[in-house]
Amino acid sequence: TTVIRWRLPAAASATLALYDVLGQRVRTLVDGPVAAGEQHVVWDGRDDRGRPAATGVYVVRLEADGWASARRLLLLR
Question: Which of 75, 56, 70 is nearest to 17 (CA)?
Answer without folding.
Answer: 70
